[in-house]
Amino acid sequence: MPIYFLSDFGSADVYAGVVRAVLRRRAPDVTVVDLAHDLPPGDVRHAALQLYAAVPYLEEGGVVLAVVDPGVGSQRRALALRGKRLWYVLPDNGIFTLVRELDPPRAAWELDPALYAPGPVSATFHGRDVFAPAAAHLAQGLPPAALGEEIDVESPFRLPLWTVEGSEGEVIGFDRFGNAITNLRPRERPEAVHVVGRRVPFKNTYADVSEGEAVAYLGSSGLVEIAIRGGSLREKFRLHEGAAAHLHGQETEPPPLELD
């Protein structure tokens, strides 16, 4: 089973490479796919949104290793989760919040590295010492019971973050281009999106408006997004996470959320 690795470790330091080295040593025949490592440091909300966008395209049975962990070394738990389609190894800080809508968890375990990775555990690098060995273990098809005690599958922490199948929502994040991502999954195609007092027309893509104009569209993850063609909507509208977004008018049915 492949391992899909997401982190905020960046590429200027060795952290992501060291985690990959641990994965290779413990599971040499397993393919590791890097989803992203330049996420905003410690931004769990953004990481949760990135996972939501990625999960539908990952091979069933694979292991998602997601390490954006500002609480490393604290009392927050380290978890392994079994979803409907995928395994997840990650900190219990809400990073799984949106993904549970796509891949509901069926079982959960609290990781105890003393059981599967005896030896020193750094207080600041659980990606290397706690999460990577657990991900390698699962990717080889080994039983999760060897990783720690099974816990209530509903107990993992959740951020105040969700998607909405309706017309009233909010901006929940931005991509690196400054495009705003809302939590709206419209039941029907809207005519426009209202945000920070502006009416933005709903089109198919950026090219449907002129350079410098704002446009709303159905993004690749099935959520309504708002952009400036050739610019940053975040900067031009001085937009922030939590800004209200309202859909106006409807035309056609959107694609379903639920995965096969």
CATH domain topology of the largest domain = Rossmann fold
Shape: elongated
Unreliable sequence segments: 251-260
Q: In what order do the strands lie side by side in the largest sheet? A: 2-1-3-5-4-6-7
Number of β-strand runs: 14
H/E series, N to C? EHEHEEEHEHHEEEEEEEHE
Query: Gap between N and C termini, in Å?
Result: 19 Å
- The tally of structural domains comes to 2
Derived structural class: alpha+beta
CATH architecture of the largest domain: 3-Layer(aba) Sandwich
Please write the CATH class name of the largest domain: Alpha Beta
Query: How helical, in percent, are the residues?
Result: 10-25%
- CATH homology group of the largest domain: S-adenosyl-l-methionine hydroxide adenosyltransferase, N-terminal
Percent of residues in β-strands: 25-35%
Mean pLDDT score: 94
**How many helical stretches?**
6
Q: The biggest beta sheet, please?
A: 7 strands, mixed
Q: C-alpha Rg, in Å? A: 20 Å
List the SSEs and their pairings.
Blueprint: E1 3-7, H1 15-26, E2 32-36, H2 44-54, E3 63-67, E4 78-83, E5 87-91, H3 99-102, E6 105-111, H4 113-116, H5 126-139, E7 148-151, E8 168-174, E9 180-182, E10 192-195, E11 198-201, E12 214-218, E13 224-228, H6 233-236, E14 244-248
Parallel strand pairs: 1-2, 1-3, 3-5
Antiparallel strand pairs: 4-5, 4-6, 6-7, 8-9, 8-14, 9-13, 10-11, 10-14, 12-13
